[in-house]
Amino acid sequence: MNFPILTLLACILVFSNVVSLKLFKKHAQLEETGGYRLPGNAKPTFYDLTFTVDFNVEKPTMQGRVVITLDVNDTKTQKVLQLNSNITFAKDAKASWLSNNDTFSCNITTPDPNYLELTCDKSITGTNQKVTIDFTPTISEVDMDGAYLVRYQEEEKSKVMIATELEQIGARKLFPCFDEPAYKAPIQLTLITNVADFNENQWISNTPVQSSSFNNTTGVHTTVFQPTPPMSTYLLAFLVCQDFVNSTANDLTGYDFSVFTRKTAANFVDIALEYAPLLIESLGRYLNLSYVSLENDKMTLAAIPEYPGVAMENWGLITFQEIYLIDEGNKTTIRDKQDIVSMIAHELSHQWFGDFVTMDWWSNTFLNEGFATYFEHYITDEVLDDVEMFAQLVTKQQQVALKDDAYPNTIPLSNNASNVTTKDDFDMEFGVISYCKGGSVLKMIRNAIGDVTFRTALYNYLNENKNGNPTPDNLIDFLEQATNSTVDLTKYLHEWIYEKGYPLLTLTLNTDNTVTLNAEKFSSSLNKTEEDNKNIWWIPLTYTTSDNLDFTELTNVTWLDPNSLSNFSITLKSGAWILANLQASGYYRVNYDATLWSRIIETLNVSPELIHVINRAQLLDDAFNLARSLDGSESELYTRAFTLAEYLKNETEYHPWYTFFVEMQYLLDRIQDEDTLAALKAKILDIVSYQVRIPKHFEDFNHLQTLKQNLILYWACKLGHDECVQWAEDQFVVYELSPNSIDNNYRDVILCTRLATSNTAIKDYAFLVNKLNTSNLPLEQTDIAKSLGCFNGTPVPDTFTLTLMDNIQFSRMMFNSILDGLINQGTEKIISTLKIVLKNDELINEKWRNIDSVENILNTIASKSFSLDIANVIQKDYIDIYEKDNNRTAIVKTAKLAIDVIKINVEWTKKFETILTSVLRP
């Protein structure tokens, strides 16, 4: 899932013995898409894949052989086959073809880095054809797709392992194959290895071991895995390891379950062992399709010490970044427990949505990721008490999507396949829209038609598309059929799926107490046009009124015709108010006229509990986003938003506070005027102070109250609340003496506050660096790494680039955590960080294997930069020096683009800072 890692391989057949327009078009399609799209002349039916791994060397190597059984179904005589492959072959390389008991050879050429071409001596048309190709894949130490080498420390010893990452375009680096998502076939993997201390549990793949043997003469171990179910090749995975441990769970019905980790982490997987089987059971029960019925009787969750993303849903072998699988035993924070369980839920959901049933092409990625996001929240609620993940879907997914989806460069949930033909296009599909909007729109549909109907539709969708590749239209058909065709979902859902953006619904109270509606496309662009504003969506309206409050009737939906909104009205009693989009069920924003806003705000100030907690979060999100997005230079909208936020002084629930702090961080990042910035901080602190409660030792709050406490204390300490800062400093002293003596739920607050306020920051920084390097727990390391970004001093200590980056235990994720902390500290800290990054560009690219290269760091910094001083540093300290350096062309190009982004950000500051000044400093 993840947040975005991935790999793809495609294979293409063309007919060469007959020169025709058809042939020309097929070659053109291959060339125009860089070898990604297949003409559909053939399909694989089975892969027999073998790798011989030499592991007893400094740099392990592999030799591969694949035997592909396939059907070539063109009516003309064919002698040429294209397979996508990013593997180097010798000039005289040949493949062997078997057709109807006749064996002949095929020449291998590589016209393009993305594919190879087989030119055979005889016709290859027919069913049950077999081609055998020997090849040498690269085990990369640069990129982390295909097969790649992981180096890590375990018990003060250097270790290596081989891992794979094939989504989207990594499979072509591993073996020649058909690897569009639509080409599914079973894969049987054989691993031949020469490790002296061999243990078959340390060599794992998607399926259980079928057989294992050892040759005493050669010292070679041969492990054959059972064939996978028919699946897309990007779902293949295997790990070749030393000293890993397979921790198992017992008493499961019909399948084997285990968690695969470094030996020293094996005692910290209790959360995964306990909750993953419960999640699998809950998913099977909800969908009426058990995991075993998907025809893979193994599930392994594997934690990899150095990983390119967050997690990957390989069928039967899900791989994770360590912080999403390895816990801290009974010291695990409730936030980390939630994150581990929900991330496992996301990836397990993919076994149904993505593995068993797979989108047809990368243009429909939301059919995989949207469902996984939806169930990540829904199913976690089934196994964890009091976490309210479905509510968190609104604040942490839907509200994120509503922000991103309001800009011109957004994309629809389902894109035209002709627009998705390159690696950059694929990457665009693995973003906020597919994940966050996808999950939110599915939630909207479920709420509109009801849970029972939704479940029926999903069962039919999965069952009828077994091992297949449905489209969004196919999903809509099953949804509509489940309603017994009483709801015209084909009409209602079309724009939600196939158009980018979403509507803003505005409610206006008239003098006769009727409320009329208007809708337009919502936009956050600074340059709006009338054409952009037209509403094209059927809006699922739900609402309640103050004289008859009911926030639970989510299926009582009125689908508003975009062409006749003026025909709809609601009559209120005198003095009453109305609130639309109950529990933020629909994927749209709501605005009200001044009178209705005033009545809602008054209710919040007097009796906030009368309005559902999710709607309280929604009101905050809508108010602040309306203020920063609508045209005009008046201060009314921000005045209203801050007036609304005053009610938070009496807010006791987590979700509205989360939304509020997201909006405040947005403003803190952008305001450059020191006096206005000080006024904003004072305003936030005034609101927060009403909820500050210094925790007693290991105080027993429920889940959401602990999350809220953490947020409140983080912001109170960050803004200089005296009592909070003193508590954090006292707790840091305790932590220095005995780290296990503090409540880990607040560890991140304590460490960050200490470095931000300490008079001995350099000493404290050194203490935490040492603690980071000696810790073996990824979650503790992450809290420490994030706190290092809070360092209140300039320049950043040299240990940032020396001690840390030279230490093999210091992972890429730890480096990212420090960077994130630093660049959230304002312009001065960004400039200090930027100078370090630019000065060490080659070291960073080498250390982090181009996954989080200087280019990516520059992009992140640009998104957080709102001062031309930062742009000037990039120009002076990098572009002016290296513009003519051929080895830095890509970074210089990115640096120039970063300056363009910063200039756009500065435009926002110029437009809105004056408004905010008038609101905060009247």
The share of residues in helices is: 40-55%
Overall radius of gyration: 29 Å
What's the count of strands? 29
Overall pLDDT metric: 88
Structure description:
Belongs to the peptidase M1 family. Zn(2+) binds at residues 346, 350, 369. The protein is of the alpha+beta class. Among the domains are: 1-242, tricorn interacting facor f3 domain (Immunoglobulin-like), CATH 2.60.40.1730; 243-334, Neutral Protease, domain 2 (Orthogonal Bundle); 362-498, Orthogonal Bundle (Neutral Protease, domain 2); 503-650, Sandwich (Immunoglobulin-like). 40% of the residues lie in helices and 19% in strands. The protein contains 27 helices and 29 strands. Strands 1-4-7-6-5-8-3-2-12-15-14 form an 11-stranded mixed β-sheet, with no helix packed on it. Strands 17-18-19-21-20 form a 5-stranded mixed β-sheet, with helices on one face. Strand 2 (42-54) and strand 3 (61-72) form a beta hairpin. Helix 6 (389-404) packs across helix 8. The chain is globular and about 85 Å long.
